[in-house]
Amino acid sequence: MSEFLARSVAAPALEVRNLSVFYGRVEALHDLSLTLERGVLAVVGRNGMGKTTLCKAIMGLAPARHGTIRAYGTEITNLSPHKRVQASVAYVPQGRRVWPSLTVDEHLRLAFMGDKESPWTPERVYDRFPRLGERKKSFGNQLSGGEQQMLAIGRALLANPRLLIMDEPTEGLAPVIVEQVEAMLRRLAEDGGMSILLIEQNLGVAMDVSNDIAIMAHGRIAREMPSRELAADAALQLRLLGVGRDEDEEVAVKAEEPVSEVRYVQIAREHGDDRQGPSYTFADGAAPPVYSATAIPNRWSADNRPMTSRLSSEAARLRAAANDDAAGGPVSPEVSAVPIASMVGRNAYVVGTFDTKGSELTFLNNALKRLGVKTVTVDLSTSGRPSPADIGPAEVARHHPGGERAVFSNDRGASVTAMAEAAARFIRTRRDVGGIISAGGSGGTVLATSAMRALPIGIPKFMVSTVASGDVSRYVGPSDITMMYAVTDVQGINSISEQVLSNAAHALGGMIAHRRRDDQRASTKPAIGLTMFGLTTPCVQMVTAALRERYDCLVFHATGTGGQSMEKLVDSHLLTGVIDVTTTEIADHLVGGVFSAGPDRFGAIIRTRVPYVGSCGALDMVNFYARDTVPARFSGRNFYIHNPNVTLMRTTPEENEAMGMFIAERLNRMEGPVRFLIPEGGVSGLDAPGKAFYDQAANRALFSTIERMMVQTPKRRLIKLPYNINDQPFAEALVRNFREIAETTRDETERLAWRA
Fold this sequence. Notes:
The chain is of the alpha/beta class.
């Protein structure tokens, strides 16, 4: 046993008393006290409350201004970090922090501090985490997030700690990997001989693995309680942590907590600050004034001593200080008040190439901060220059499947393409994105919008770009990105760019602050997606008429972006089911028409397993613009002039066979409930006896291929009907089958929830 810990085996595993930590003049922890006797203590709280700072302070990475830290009775407050590790305290940092250029085995051998008789050796780590043994020769940047977390935990265990500090071990992991990490934590706790301080945003994990829970707010511990008590009281979770629909409410804390921001304005006015503003109503009916966010100090402000000790001297100074911003210039006193409470846990991500657009991105960042919006800066540059951003290019690049080496190469075009992919993967791992904003030229727009498109529909996305006045479809795609033309080139701050960027920052701040919650939506009915073309309109109209009382029916025009938009909403979990009547975009994708939705058509259905009813709507046609735009290779084909700007071309039996193979392959990958209906009487208004595209041979090639290749199961069924797609009995069959699988899915979900 370490000499530091041998003094008292009966002492608490961790004892923190009156701990204060500052970043410059900003007080991140103030008079924090915490005790971990034995076992697992989870610390939870909203973003920005100081949880990571607590971990760093315990490990000596953030020096304490005052207060004490003891591990098993021995004071470690002033020890260097490596001495704390020698004192049997180990740390698993947020973000895992594995070395991309070292193999798994090199990580563990480098971290091993003992000998073969030690409680933890590399061999025991491999035994505990078999997956690491399988990946022994893999580099850090080749590991998945879950594998990196196993490695970070294993690396810490090789210090043979009696106290393990773990900061957000499940951050950014898929649900199945979260379950594995949760099981690891339980096993470590059950082994005995080790206590764990767990910082965790996932409240379910925190309650499941810990004995007790400490709730952190504004740099101190607001309340401690047994985990089972918090788990059994949903109302208490809502009141203390904002879990649920009332997340905008302030965190309830003990009486000794520093004065809240709203109360601060009230007291400030009592001391001579008579700032006026609009008002809003609290739940109890009181209507305190909304404060101007630019004038409210918080723990990120330039001075964050306890508010009660500085109100009388600071009230007059705050207005002038808050209105003085080096990068953005003075702020008008009439600036709109932003309800900061509504943005707790929602950060504005300022992303872009800081090596070339640093001044513009910094201007956006400071403008948002002046509104009171908490920001995270992310550098997507590929030049290799030092970065001023919170998250540098190397950290983003590590999310590329090939790691940093795939991003930073001598080929600029390849580097930008790889960084765009890394940015999209990176942003999906962030759980605190309230909105995202960028400014740039064509290259910067490609990088930033790649990240934006990876986010769900509804999260505010704002792009200031020099390309915004042209065709922006390849940047926006099916996402809800707001594009603003930069007017001048994005090259420094001038009288025009200052105004444009200020407008952009204020727009994003408003979007984040006033984003609608689920309980504020106009429709409370579950939303479903339907696809329609002009030549399948009668069918879709009958289906929506039958379902609109129970469902919010969202109809998408199957013109490429329509299908992409529908699937984007599916991926964003904003649709509870799909009736895919019109799959014509597949014909354009395979044959070369202008309305292709790309190769990922059906991909969202596969990924999310939502209830799906599909059909062959308008697969008899490939779409082109005016007749003279049709490629010469199609001369001699059967054409139909739909209107002067749209020309339709009948698909051949060979093309229908290819489409049947495409559809069947994707249907077989769908693991949710599936019904695919074949209209043997024709797939569109033009595919009927006497109509221009009636071709039984082509239809037989399509239908027989799907029937032959589709693997039917109890959940995945093919249904053939002797009707045209626009006949009423066919529309009724679509409705009947959707209701069947949707209600079965709902009943199964409720049954599982009841069992849980």
